[in-house]
Structures are given as structure tokens and as C-alpha cells.
Write a structure and sequence with these properties.
Layout: H1 2-18, E1 32-40, E2 46-48, E3 55-60, E4 65-72, E5 78-80, E6 85-92, E7 95-101, E8 106-114, E9 118-123, E10 128-133
Length: 141
């Protein structure tokens, strides 16, 4: 078990050292609709998401950042509520951290990678969440 954990830590470190570093000027890529693609757990197991009934809408501005769940419809619109997770993004030691705080809890996620079409976050338990840009389905009558 210890050997497996050591190999996993080595692979995570290799991944981070080979990954393109996130730049401050690229943070605007986070704006828009994203769907979860894959989650990789600390033990090395993973879960792929082929179909998503809800997606994340993220909006990044200098003052406020928020993330909310929305449900896409077949006509290209979205069903949403007023619930949103507000957060800040700060740079710590060369990496960008998303800091969330609400009335019930407080947590952080590290922005591991970011491009126009994909991004990854790692939570405090070392679980990695991989997202891809959402492509809407628009079926018009």
C-alpha cells in the first residue's frame, strides 16, 4: 500500500512539473460554461463523466468571482437558481488558489491547468477535477 501511494505521489508530481503553468492573464478563460469530464482520486482511481445533467457557469471579474450550477435545455437555454458559490482567486508561491467561503464552510482548490477548452482543479484532499468547455446542444423546431 505504501509503495502504491509513493508511486501515485510521484505521478502527481510529474504531472504538475510537466503541466503548463497557469498564467494570470489566462484566468479569463474560466469565464463561461464548463462540464466535469473526469475526477481522479488520491488512490489513483478515477471516474469518467460521459453525460452531465448540470454544468458549471463561472464568472471571473476583478472584484467578484462566482460559480453556479445550471441545467442546459435542448433549446440552448439554461435553468438555474439564484444559488452561487462566491470565491476569490489568489496567487500563492506561483500557483493560483480558488478560495471559497460561505456560512457553512470554507475551502480551497488549486488551479492545476487552464486553457481555452480545459481546466483542472485539485482540492485539499488531492482529488483532481478535470473540466471541459461545455458545447451546448441546440435542437430547434
Amino acid at each position: 500500500m505504501k509503495m502504491r501511494k509513493a508511486v501515485l505521489i510521484g505521478l502527481v508530481l510529474l504531472f504538475f512539473s510537466c503541466a503548463k503553468k497557469v498564467k494570470k492573464e489566462d484566468l479569463y478563460y474560466l469565464n463561461g460554461y464548463w462540464e466535469i469530464e473526469k475526477v481522479t482520486f488520491p488512490d489513483g482511481s478515477s471516474k469518467d463523466y460521459m453525460v452531465n445533467t448540470s454544468i458549471d457557469y463561472i464568472e471571473i471579474t476583478d472584484e467578484k468571482c462566482f460559480r453556479k450550477k445550471v441545467q442546459p435545455t435542448l433549446n440552448g437555454t439554461y435553468v438555474t437558481s439564484n444559488d452561487a458559490e462566491f470565491f476569490t482567486i489568489m496567487e500563492k508561491e506561483g500557483v493560483f488558489i480558488c478560495h471559497y467561503k460561505n456560512n457553512l464552510s470554507e475551502w480551497e482548490e488549486q488551479l492545476v491547468s487552464l486553457s481555452k477548452s480545459h481546466f483542472s482543479l485539485m482540492d485539499q484532499d488531492n482529488t483532481i477535477y478535470n473540466y471541459k468547455k461545455y458545447e451546448p446542444i441546440n435542437i430547434r423546431e
